[in-house]
Amino acid sequence: MNICVTGGAGFIGSEIVRQLVASQHEVLVIDSLTYAGDLFNLTEVKGKIQFFQVDINDKQEIKEVFNSVKVDLIINCAAETHVDNSISDPGIFFQTNILGTYNLLEIARTQSIKFLQVSTDEVYGSKVEGEFSEDSILNPSSPYSASKASAEMLVNSYISTYNSNALIVRCSNNYGPHQFPEKLIPVFLSKLISGGKVPLYGNGANIREWIHVSDSAKGIIDVALQGKRGDIFNISSSDFRSNIEVTKLLLSILDKTEEQIEYVADRPGHDFRYAIDSSKIRRILSWQPLIGFDEGLRSTVEWYLANPNFLTKKGPAHV
């Protein structure tokens, strides 16, 4: 199958690309190579993919790319994703995550291409107890999550209005190799390796559901290939960890002490707990995560220690 992965030089996108290439698919990558995208992430598949440095916000360039190649499926990973950045500069999030998605939906509609929107558990908002299902009402609380929820509404409108062959996946917190050092785990690793302290929001009690990027990518691919028009699937691990738990495990792996923790003021609108039910994808597509968090975090630390230059990458990064 000829598959286009937008945002394919990023963290999750590049893992999807590696798995697709390993499965003998023809892969086209579109990425604008902003600060979080890096051709280094595609080193393993160099010479095995087609790559176009194009911004999904550029409607004309996107059209030209898709007019020049045959594509059966689009997996849209292209997005601005950092919540703190969305608070300080929300405009680019609305531009890329909403209007960029619209541009791709138009391509998919006019060329009859299957379309998978990669979304986030953050569209549901916070939940003190229990888990959100795919039928739960969306209640985003940050400009980032609002932009992703808005993109989902666009996708649903194209399904209803144009009968577009489109689907949605909502993923929990991803971690693993190749993640740009703006998210909690690589930021904390960078601080600890350089001898600094880790800036932990509030009291560290916020809870996230962590999933290794290889498991997440496998789920995304399963939905893309096997899912039907209008399907929505949650992809999660059911492994819940507070931020302080994650921090202490990192400290233990690196043989550091809790004196390295610096508690800082919480960010505005910081959701306390994300939790999504992934029983649907496990039941229908027989997907399940294979990498436990302790094992996955240790291998992630090993990867960053073997690739220290990745932790020095710069961008509009916040914790």
TrEMBL record:
CDD domains: dTDP_GD_SDR_e (cd05246)
GO biological process, one term: nucleotide-sugar metabolic process
Gene3D superfamilies: NAD(P)-binding Rossmann-like Domain (3.40.50.720), UDP-galactose 4-epimerase, domain 1 (3.90.25.10)
GO molecular function, one term: dTDP-glucose 4,6-dehydratase activity
Cofactor: NAD(+)
Pfam family, one: GDP_Man_Dehyd
SUPFAM superfamilies, per database record: NAD(P)-binding Rossmann-fold domains
Alphabetical keyword list: Lyase, NAD
InterPro entries named among the record's database cross-references: dTDP_Gluc_deHydtase (IPR005888), NAD(P)-bd_dom (IPR016040), NAD(P)-bd_dom_sf (IPR036291)
Keyword Lyase: yes
NAD(P)-binding domain segment(s): 5-299
Identification of the protein by name: Unannotated protein
Organism lineage string: unclassified sequences, metagenomes, ecological metagenomes
